[in-house]
Amino acid sequence: KKDLIILGIETSCDETAAAVVKNGREIVSNVIASQIESHKRFGGVVPELASRHHVEQITLVIEEALKKAELSFEDIDAIAVTEGPGLVGALLVGVNAAKAIAFSRNIPLVGVHHIAGHIYANRLVKEMSFPLLSLVVSGGHTELVLMKEHGDFKVIGETRDDAAGEAYDKVARTLHLPYPGGPHIDRLAHEGAATIDLPRAWLEDDSYDFSFSGLKSAVINTLHNAEQKGISIDPKNMAASFQASVIDVLVTKTLKAAKEFKVKQVLLSGGVAANKGLREELEKAFAPIMDIELVIPPLVLCTDNAAMIAAAGSILFEKGKRSQYSLNANPSLDI
Ligand code: KG4
Ligand code: ZN
């Protein structure tokens, strides 16, 4: 049987990315142009700036992905592109680049949901076994997705307000740490102790949803009140306490859902998967459970990349999915 060669394209946020993946599991090339340095001085991603960077980078990144793979467009069986969710102006750059190549070279086009991509990042590391549960935690998403087979996604829980990474970034800002704040809080948390009492939003007993905005407000209020009373709070202890609250809720709900749905695998992905505390606590929670395998991909596959889009696109392509040239960016696409 001939190899299936997919070109993936991802531009939903602030990384311009292209990758070539063979047979859905093997990374042939994976090119990522990050814009973080440009957005840093604004303390977050500036959508208009993101679009402009994507326009400048997209052709170069795609060419480099092909060059590194030592392939040309003639070798590509399909182009998989993130169609949503994300920043609309950013998504449009990838979608239009993909459509232009697909049309001019007569290559099939497959639109991919960004979260499906994050989940399929795991398949570049480990073959999936179903049913499985995926925890996707990034700057834009906090979702628990149940899969019974390839291409079948059921969101059993999601954030009702801020995403986990968003909460990290906002709390980091109040602690005067640079953007993106997640890694800085993670580092400080390991130097401090969780001595400050902060809330955990468990929500209803049977809910797998999340909420992080109350926690964020509690951090801000605690710092503010302390300042007014002239008490100083060690940022290390605040970071440790905040991190403990986030991880407690994420790990507890993931463990509960994994048991309830009797899954064979639990997959972690999204930028917050870089968090040392989260990795450690998940490993601790699942280590005693012999029939559930915990999969945590390397960091470069957890944050936004195009290999994950190509991996998800491979499965969708094999299942017969083809997108029309009318494919459009959809900032609030459902999975
Ligand atoms: O997946 P990603 O690169 O982009 C999005 O799709 O959002 O995730 C970025 C998010 C940011 O909010 C960043 O602060 C967070 O991931 N992050 C972390 C860590 N490293 C990155 N959060 C907590 N701990 C970390 N070590
Ligand atoms: Zn993402």
UniProtKB/TrEMBL annotation:
InterPro entries: ATPase_NBD (IPR043129), Gcp-like_dom (IPR000905), KAE1/TsaD (IPR017861), TsaD (IPR022450). Its cofactor is Fe(2+). The keyword Acyltransferase applies. Substrate binds at V136, V137, S138, G139, G140, D169, G182, D186, N275. SUPFAM superfamilies: Actin-like ATPase domain (SSF53067). Required for the formation of a threonylcarbamoyl group on adenosine at position 37 (t(6)A37) in tRNAs that read codons beginning with adenine. Is involved in the transfer of the threonylcarbamoyl moiety of threonylcarbamoyl-AMP (TC-AMP) to the N6 group of A37, together with TsaE and TsaB. TsaD likely plays a direct catalytic role in this reaction. This is tRNA N6-adenosine threonylcarbamoyltransferase. The lineage of its organism: Bacteria, Bacillati, Bacillota, Bacilli, Bacillales.
